[in-house]
Amino acid sequence: MGHVHRRTGNSTGPDPGTAGSAGPHSAHPSRRNPRRVPVRRHPEHAVLDALRATWLSLQPSAFAAERLRNLHHGEPDAVVSHLSAAHYVFELGSLQPDRLDYTIATPRRTSNPWVEFHVAESWPPTWQLVDGLPVTPVAQTIADIYRAGIDAGHLGDIVRDALSRAVVDVRAITAELDPPTGGHGRDTVTHALAVVGTPDSVAAGNELLFAGRR
Q: Which stretches are tagged as biased composition: Basic residues (predicted)?
């Protein structure tokens, strides 16, 4: 996968300072060998710093260096996901999350009002390393957001950006959306794109592009 390009401008999402105050704390992503994706930095990196600091705080008894090393040799205990992954990490769509989203293995509580936990259906989820953070891949992120009940318009914004920037194969999105839609993943993609006025050529062009990469 190439560079993840970021928008410039100010974020109006969770307050980075408050979010990180809880304590110290691919083309083919893999459960065991995550692909590291280089990114470019810009003024919005404060939110990413908050995501990272809060992720570290989820296991306050472990040293930060130890947890970061484990990302390269094992599996994470929490993964950035849902709207936080879509908006802040991959810069897809315009809907900003109210909290910092993390997918975890089992239910747990947090005293941090800026954090929202999502329990994975199976563990570990597929994940990749982006800018030092374990993150759900784009297709999985879109499926998770769909399951969380996002409206078709905001889903269409996210899918359109993902397809037009070629950060994911439309067939991968379809495959991830098939289970929660009863096998209607591609119809769900088509409908969401239609709601935001995206021509069919965007999905068709994306499919041709990724077919040529195989």
A: 28-40
